[in-house]
Amino acid sequence: MEYIDLTYKLKNEIPEYPGDPKTKLDYFKKADETDSSTLFKLETGLHTGTHMDSPFHYITNGKKISQLPLENFIGEASINYVESKSKEILVKNCNLKNSKEKIAIIITGWGEYFGSKKYFYENPYISNELADMIIEKNIKGIAIDTCSVDKYGENTIHKKLLENNVWIVENITNCDDLNKTNYNSFFIPLNIEAEASPVRAFLKKD
Hints:
CATH topology: Glucose Oxidase, domain 1
Strand order of the largest sheet: 4-10-9-7-5-11-12
Number of domains: 1
Radius of gyration: 17 Å
């Protein structure tokens, strides 16, 4: 059984969204002659690397990650390659209109800029009409290979999706060679009482 990992490795050099905390991963203690165990400590923002946003990110009384149903994190996902040079992703730019899966993976190719300023400031983003379709189709979660579903400095799409209980996974990677229209997908966050969480995202090969 083979899997495709869509997750960026969480490490000290991982780039963070502008204004977010830097990631610090370091030894708390090392195994030596007096202690047989090694222990790391981690400081990071919850929106660094491959992560999931819950409704509480923008909705005051929205659900936190720990309150989301486990069954919503796993299922058949449609693969939607964006066929457009425009930064705004419209319904006509991908095949989501014809899909029946309840998780949508949107691939723009923007991951090639990961680690650069351009990645964060000029990212492709979901249009209002595409967000409306996601909600109308009762999709439970979306994943995208950009830093945000919104244009830099905006939050309209986040709010629209999250207030309709659609979880959002951002910064997925390793998407270039997906050769099917759908995969069995897994987007597994921590059981954390917060608005977001690092997530291990992967697909199952048949």
